[in-house]
Amino acid sequence: MENDRYQKSKSELREKYLALRNKLNAKDEVEASRIISQRILSHPQFIKAKHVMLYIPFQKEVNIRPVIEEAWKERKNVLVSKTDIRTKRMEPYLVADWNDIERGNFDLYEPKTSAKTPFPLGKIELVLVPGIAFDLKGHRLGFGAGFYDRFFDRFNTLPFSLGIAYDFQLIDSLPTEQHDYSLTELITEKRMISVI
């Protein structure tokens, strides 16, 4: 019974915050994404990291394409995950430019992986994480498949992680379970929150 209420609560929150994100007008989306990208680019962890795992924006996620392009200019190793539905795992792959990206599972942009091997997890210094909502303790509400939790579970030492969101996606508290990971910091267009 308790798990049913937990899942219903997460489902309701997912529906509510996806609807809010989908209502975001183009002007506000562009301006917020610009501010957030600038905050990422000036973040000390981004500046010093050589191996950065990013995401390719999907639907109305914060658009961090300027961050990706700047990382390439700075000759950082830009990593993007590929999802394996069968194993329910994400694997990071090195992408050198937009030609290394294609539509993949769940209609997400993913790296082309033929003749490539996954990037070693232990070398990743920074992970930028999108989400539907985040709480002020750094917990993330995603689409419910648990890919990021399983991904972080594979690290011996967790990399620095930044939750990337519009400010309206932050809430006081999310329902969590023991296996849910907390991110290191949250960045929105209005604030930066250290949680660990």
Describe the structure.
This protein has helices at 2-23, 26-41, 44-48, 65-73, 147-153; strands at 51-54, 77-84, 89-94, 101-103, 109-111, 126-129, 133-135, 140-141, 160-164, 170-171, 185-187, 192-194. By secondary structure, it is an alpha/beta fold. The chain has a single domain, classed as NagB/RpiA/CoA transferase-like (Rossmann fold). The strands form 3 sheets. It has a 7-stranded mixed sheet, with helices on both faces. Strands 8-7-10 form a 3-stranded mixed sheet. It has a two-stranded antiparallel sheet with strand order 4-5. Helix 4 links the parallel strand 1 and strand 2. Helix 2 runs parallel beside helix 4 (65-73). It is globular and about 40 Å long. The protein starts with a helix and ends with a strand. Mean pLDDT is 91; it is low at 1-6.
CATH architecture: 3-Layer(aba) Sandwich
The radius of gyration computed from the alpha-carbon positions, rounded to a whole number of angstroms, is 16 Å
Derived from helix and strand composition plus strand pairing, the structural class reads: alpha/beta
**Which sequence of strands runs across the widest sheet?**
3-2-1-6-9-11-12
Q: How many separate helices? A: 5
CATH class: Alpha Beta
Distance between the termini: 32 Å
Gross morphology is globular
Fraction of helical residues: 25-40%
Task: Catalogue the unreliable spans.
Answer: 1-6
